[in-house]
Amino acid sequence: MTQYDFAKVTAELPILRDFIDFVNKQSAVYMDSLAGFEGNTVRIGRQVHRVTRPDHIEVKDGKNVVVWSSAEDPSQPDVILSTIRRAPDYLTDNSHGGFNEQQLCASIIVFMFAYWDEEVRPAIARVRGVEPNSIQLDALGDLRILRKAAIHAGGTVTATEHAKLKKMADLAKPGSRLVLTHDQMHRIFVLVKQAIGEIILHYTGELPGAPSADEIVGIAIQDAGSRKGRAF
């Protein structure tokens, strides 16, 4: 690796480190939110069970149980409620793979691609002295397709767009609505990290002992600072 290449690597690593931190935070938000959805399901499920016990025979299957979602006391006259939903709807939205989880998945996909496309890719391109569109990675291109489906096609990956997927084709069905499982969402995180690995290996991939990007499941870039004046 030439001195010039080393300068480029040094310039790119902080950009990639910030992106890795961002992706890891999205993974953490995803996991924390799932725990919250599960807690909501358990709590309201217990409430429905109490309300629909035999001595309340006028209520059947929880259909007349209403969930009042608010950060304030609903007994107060000036309370502003955020939502009023039937308990079955609330439980469905918060269920495993339900609307809330899918909305979260779509939001993270859109957010990750926007950060890559508007911040990371142009910054890497500036370091390399090329146009941003010349920085292309299969996984991030697939993320663009999923993002397009979420925003412009009601969550449906059209057959035409599905044919363009290179890394994530098994996550969606042509002409069907994208519904991601827990494992599939984590696979997206891994594929994005592998793509970051491809950028890192751009200069070092041919060196002895360099890993394959496909083997990467996690990346950490340490900010060791300047080593000038250190004793070894």
Please tell me the overall pLDDT.
78
Could you give a short account of the major beta sheet? 2 strands, antiparallel
Taking pLDDT < 50 over at least 5 consecutive residues as the criterion, the unreliable ranges are 48-59, 226-232
Q: Tell me the domain tally.
A: 2
Percent of residues in helices comes to 55-70%
Distance between the termini: 23 Å
What's the count of strands? 4
Q: Work out the strand percent.
A: 5-15%
Structural class: mainly alpha
What is the N-to-C order of secondary-structure elements (H for helix, E for strand)? HEEHHHEHEH
Strand order, biggest sheet? 1-2
Instruction: Compute the CA-based radius of gyration.
Output: 24 Å
What is the overall number of helices? 6
Shape by Cα distribution: globular
What are its keywords?
232 residues, mainly alpha, 2 domains, two-stranded antiparallel ribbon, 6 helices, 5% strand
List the helices and strands and how they pair.
Layout (H helix, E strand, L loop, with lengths): L2 H49 L14 E4 L13 E4 H8 L4 H30 L9 H15 L3 E2 L1 H4 L13 E2 L4 H23 L28
Antiparallel strand pairs: 1-2, 3-4
Helix pairs in contact: 1-2, 1-3, 1-6, 3-4, 4-6
